[in-house]
């Protein structure tokens, strides 16, 4: 007699089957809908250097450090498929540092960006991945679905938190991202979007996540609602993150 599937596996399979059914039914019902309208063309261009302040709350950019957030090979690959990228290191009054990396693309309607998920980039640089899980980042402006993991390379322990956006929808790579892409595609729209990642080098994993949460909170406090939507989409409740 076959062993019963774990609840999470069963839910994932059912979600996948539902997504497949939606895609098949919509393909037959509206065969002439091909996304052609770029969402990015309908709103102001994204300038990450201008959008993200170099100083806010207790944080300011640490320009003294020469180390990059990503290595040159990865950064070059990102720039081939993203319209603009930003990599900075911030420090607070306690000497704690956060590495921020954002990559924005005007075309997030396909699968070309999947190869540049943080899990894949870090593994390609020789890191082993641990504590990989989905979480909800609670900010004073709303809740953001995030993925957290710890990248380890020798003595370097780097807990990190990231999310992606598809248009004005905050989501994560995988089936839910595909649904967000499909929703835009059915309206003939090619969505834009970004990957937002924060990380810190420390062995205290939970302390790192708290530090990253506080960093995001301070950043969002310094932004307008429209700017927050650019970086984190809209919350599931309909508010702005």
UniProtKB/TrEMBL annotation:
<dbReference type="Pfam" id="PF11984">
    <property type="entry name" value="DUF3485"/>
</dbReference>
<feature type="domain" description="Methanolan biosynthesis EpsI">
    <location>
        <begin position="17"/>
        <end position="225"/>
    </location>
</feature>
<protein>
    <recommendedName>
        <fullName>Methanolan biosynthesis EpsI domain-containing protein</fullName>
    </recommendedName>
</protein>
<dbReference type="InterPro" id="IPR054653">
    <property type="entry name" value="EpsI_type_B_pred"/>
</dbReference>
<dbReference type="InterPro" id="IPR006311">
    <property type="entry name" value="TAT_signal"/>
</dbReference>
<dbReference type="InterPro" id="IPR014263">
    <property type="entry name" value="Methanolan_biosynth_EpsI"/>
</dbReference>
């Amino acid at each position: 007699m076959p062993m019963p599937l774990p609840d999470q596996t069963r839910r994932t399979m059912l979600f996948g089957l539902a997504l497949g059914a939606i895609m098949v039914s919509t393909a037959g019902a509206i065969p002439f809908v091909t996304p052609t309208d770029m969402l990015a063309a309908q709103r102001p261009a994204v300038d990450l250097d201008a959008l993200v302040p170099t100083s806010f709350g207790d944080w300011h950019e640490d320009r003294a450090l020469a180390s990059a957030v990503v290595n040159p090979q990865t950064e070059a690959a990102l720039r081939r498929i993203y319209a603009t990228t930003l990599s900075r290191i911030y420090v607070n009054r306690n000497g704690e540092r956060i590495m921020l990396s954002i990559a924005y693309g005007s075309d997030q309607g396909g699968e070309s960006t999947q190869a540049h998920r943080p899990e894949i980039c870090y593994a390609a640089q020789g890191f082993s991945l641990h504590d990989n899980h989905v979480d909800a980042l609670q900010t004073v402006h709303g809740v953001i679905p995030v993925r957290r993991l710890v990248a380890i390379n020798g003595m370097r322990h780097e807990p990190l938190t990231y999310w992606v956006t598809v248009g004005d929808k905050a989501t994560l790579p995988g089936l839910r991202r595909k649904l967000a892409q499909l929703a835009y595609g059915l309206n003939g729209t090619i969505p834009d979007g970004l990957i937002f990642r924060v990380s810190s080098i420390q062995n205290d994993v939970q302390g790192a996540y708290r530090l990253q949460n506080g960093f995001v909170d301070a950043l969002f406090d310094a932004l307008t609602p429209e700017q927050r939507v650019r970086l984190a989409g809209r919350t599931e409740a309909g508010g702005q993150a």
